[in-house]
Structures are given as structure tokens and as C-alpha cells.
Amino acid sequence: MSLRDTIVALSTPLGRGGMGVIRLSGPSACSIAEAVLRFPVEAHWKSWASQLAYLPDEHGATIDQAVVSFFEQPRSYTAEDVVEVACHGSPVVLQFCLDRALRAGARLAEPGEFTLRGFVNGRIDLPQAEAVRELIDATTLYQARVASQQIGGSVSRRLRPLKEQLLELISLMEAGIDFAEDDISVASPDEVLRRMRPIREGVDRLVSTFRSGRYVFEGFTLAIAGRPNVGKSSLFNRLLERDRAIVTGIPGTTRDTISETTSMDGIPVKLVDTAGIRQSNDLVESLGIQRSHEAVADADLTLLVLDLSEPLMEEDRTLLAALADRRPVVVGNKCDLPRRLESNRETMPVSAVTGDGVDELRKAILHRLTPEGLATPETGVITSLRHANLLRECLEALDSAKRAVEFNIPHEMLLLDLYAALQPIDAITGATTADDILNRIFSTFCIGK
Ligand SMILES: Nc1nc2c(ncn2[C@@H]2O[C@H](COP(=O)(O)OP(=O)(O)OP(=O)(O)O)[C@@H](O)[C@H]2O)c(=O)[nH]1
Ligand SMILES: [Mg+2]
């Protein structure tokens, strides 16, 4: 794939619509647009301005009117000349316009190539480019907000000062080794440790945002479990805000697991209603109960539902014990009825029928999953597994560097660890060159003045 030629693509979805936009990017964007379109007066390419044009067929008859916008390099999405042709959104017209552009010398863009060019031309960095896709794929406004912050550079903004500190430390150590005879004092172990600490803390803090960052995009699975008739399906419907599952007063109503997706505070949640768990001789019911156990095992979090209007039963006790190590959120349902269950403070009283306590329950669920609170988009959140893994690699290397200092291992070896810590950061923000380090040594240490 050459990045020199001029590419073209339909930038709006295929199909009929009020408008459709065809985007050209590359050195011949303007001349190709001139070959495809007819301008009433001569085309004038003023950056960040629009002009009217006509799309003629082979015989010169007008097919459509278009508004043509021009973005002169480097102030464009790709940092190349970009021309956007906004026609009416008719698939045949748009296809015709696209074909004409191809015949005039443009190449059909590969998926994501406009953004790739923005990255290759240094307009945006890798996390920003990756976030463009997350923004387009966003299914909740909260996701869009987080992605948009990342397009604005929130990840790099948080990484940059850490990388800066790491580079300072590396330069300091390199200088100590390379220019030892020039009276450059070698950094003391305490000094090295003192400089390493804030870097490690910063990277660690960023990695910890991944937990909630992951939930932002992938959402989480919430299983609702309990013995029969405690109101699991009623609670499922209440959380879903519609009557999806069958509710009756007959224990054993739900036979199979049912799942539906909703959102809590902009986070996608897959809710799973399960069959009430008890000893059963009925084949169908016991198969359903088997599935309940599987649903609980697969879930990120389980709501264990009790019935406050009845004393605690043997089945409740068994479930409380069986699920204890999964730390379920224990819910006391039917709090609207006279109370006959002594529960501890951890049990959240709710009523699936009146809705009492449901808001608090939602909060408790989110709090349980992201105890540090949902990272606000402003603070910068790591949402990509790739970034999280790279940052973990960086932490490991920093830990190994710390051990090297503590064991008084020679600086040459320690430097290897520091470079190993720098590499994954580079893989996110873009590479550091030998010049970056040399320049730093020469500028901050005034060697060879
Ligand atoms: N008063 C009151 N009744 C409730 C409440 N929640 C559920 N019920 C009633 O309890 C009965 C059982 O409700 P379901 O939601 O079907 O219970 P379940 O846990 O799904 O039962 P199985 O599917 O059989 O395991 C129904 O008659 C509901 O109307 C509540 O908060 N208050
Ligand atoms: Mg049910």
C-alpha cells in the first residue's frame, strides 16, 4: 500500500440519505476533484472553505449539485490535501462520483487509511488513531466521551511526563557511564530510586484505570441468582425497565437463563436472569439449574437475591455459602412486604415491585465493579488491552530495575531494564531515537562545551 498516491472513499454509510460525502486525500485531491466536477466559475482552492460544483455525466448533463470543501495540508485530517465532496445521499450518484474519481487517478482507500495517513504524517499518535475507531463504535454517550478524550490525546498526555522522567534517568545513567572520566558524578542508588518512584506510581495509576476502562467499552455481565420465587425475574425486569421475563407466584417459573443488554451510567451491562436454584427431581428444571450455576461462574458479578418477607431458608443458606468467595451483592427483595428476615447490613433492601432501593442497588453494583469510581474521561482512561499489557510490561521492567539498584548491579545492566521499561511506552506514544537520548545528555549536562 503506497501512502503517496491520492485515495478516495465514501465517508458516509452506504445507502440512501439526505447527504453522502466522498473524501479525497493526497497530492492530487484538487486536480482529481476538478476532473470529476464542473465548477461554475474557476475552482478556487481556499483552505477550510467550501464552493459549489456540479457532478456531470459523460455527456455533460448535470446529475447532482455538490458542496466541495477543501482542507490544505497540513491542516487536515490526514495532514495531506483533503477534498470533501458532499452530494445528495443517493447510492447511484455516490457510486458514479466515486467511479469518476477512480478513473481520474484516485485509488480506493483501504479501511482506516485516512486515519492511518493522519498517524503516518504525524498528525495524531497511535492512541489517538486507535480511539477514532472506539468513537465510531461507541454505543453509549459515555463511551463516546471517553473515546473523544483519547482522540484529544488524553492517554499520551498522561504518559508523556512519565516518559520524560524515564528519559532523564536514562540520560543521567548513560552520561555516568560514557563520560565517567569527565568528572560527571555517577548517580547514587538513592537518587536512582528516588527518580524511579514517581514513574512507577504514574504508570501503575494508569494501568489501574484499565479496569473501569475495559468496562466502559466491553461492559460487564451481571447474573441474578437465588432460590425460586424470591423475585429474580421481577428484579431483572426492573433493572431492564421492561417486562422481558415471565413472572408468576409459582416457584420454578424461570426454566432457562435469559439475557438482555442494558446500560448503567453509560456502561453496557448484560443482565442474566436464571432459574431458581434448589434440589429438583424435574429433568428440565435441573438442566435449567445447571445453567444458573454456569451463568454465575461466567458473570463479572452476581446479585444473590433473598426474600425479606420470608425467613431464611435452607436453600438460601446453601447459596450464601456456595457463592461466598465470589463476593456477590446480596439483595433483600420484597422490602415492601412485612419483614420476616433478619438480614445483616450488607443486604441491600429493594422492592422489584415498587422500585424502592433500585437506584441504590445500581450504584452499589457500579461501585463494586469499579471501587475507585468510574474514571472520568477527563482523567484519561486506558481502554485498550494492548495499552494495558504494554504498561504492565513497563511496570515489570521498572521492578526489575529497582531490584538491580538494590543489589548494586552495575549501571550497564540497570540501563537494560530502564530501556526495557521505555520500549513499551514507546510502543504507545511513538519511538524514542538514540538522538533523543544523546540530545538530552548534551543539552542537560553541558558536556563538550
Ligand atoms: N410484594 C412483592 N412481590 C414481589 C416482589 N418481587 C417479586 N414479587 C413476587 O414474587 C413472585 C415471584 O416473582 P419472580 O420474579 O417470578 O421470582 P423468581 O425468583 O424469578 O422465581 P423463579 O423464576 O421461580 O425462580 C411473583 O408473584 C412476584 O410478583 C417485590 O419486590 N414485592
Ligand atoms: Mg424467574
Structural features, described:
The chain is an alpha/beta fold and 449 residues long. The chain has 3 domains: 111 residues, Gyrase A, domain 2; 116 residues, tRNA modification GTPase MnmE domain 2 (Four Helix Bundle (Hemerythrin (Met), subunit A), Up-down Bundle), CATH 1.20.120; 153 residues, Rossmann fold, CATH 3.40.50.300. It contains 14 helices and 12 strands. Helix 10 links the parallel strand 10 and strand 11. Helix 3 packs antiparallel against helix 4, helix 4 runs antiparallel to helix 5 and helix 6 packs across helix 14. The protein starts with 6 loop residues before the first strand and ends with a helix. The structure holds guanosine-5'-triphosphate and magnesium ion. The site of guanosine-5'-triphosphate has 24 residues, from helix 8.
Detail the topology: elements first, then pairings:
Elements: E1 7-10, E2 17-25, H1 29-36, E3 49-56, E4 62-71, E5 82-89, H2 91-103, E6 107-108, H3 113-120, H4 126-137, H5 141-151, H6 154-178, H7 189-218, E7 220-226, H8 232-240, E8 258-264, E9 267-273, H9 283-298, E10 301-307, H10 314-323, E11 329-333, E12 348-349, H11 358-369, H12 385-406, H13 411-429, H14 434-445
Parallel strand pairs: 1-6, 7-9, 7-10, 10-11, 11-12
Antiparallel strand pairs: 1-2, 2-5, 3-4, 4-5, 8-9
Bound molecules: guanosine-5'-triphosphate and magnesium ion.
Brief synopsis:
The chain has about 450 residues and is of the alpha/beta class.
Quickly count the helices. Answer: 14
Order of helices and strands: EEHEEEHEHHHHHEHEEHEHEEHHHH
Instruction: From the 3D structure, determine the CATH topology of the largest domain.
Output: Rossmann fold
Structural class: alpha/beta
* Tally of distinct domains: 3
Name the overall outline.
Answer: flat
Mean pLDDT: 89
What helical percentage do the residues reach?
40-55%
The percentage of residues in β strands lies in 15-25%
Strand order of the largest sheet: 3-4-5-2-1-6
Query: CATH homologous superfamily name of the largest domain?
Result: P-loop containing nucleotide triphosphate hydrolases
CATH hierarchy, class of the largest domain: Alpha Beta
Strand count, sense and closure of the main sheet? 6 strands, mixed
Which CATH architecture of the largest domain? Answer: 3-Layer(aba) Sandwich
Low-confidence stretches: none
* Straight-line distance between termini: 46 Å
The number of strands is 12
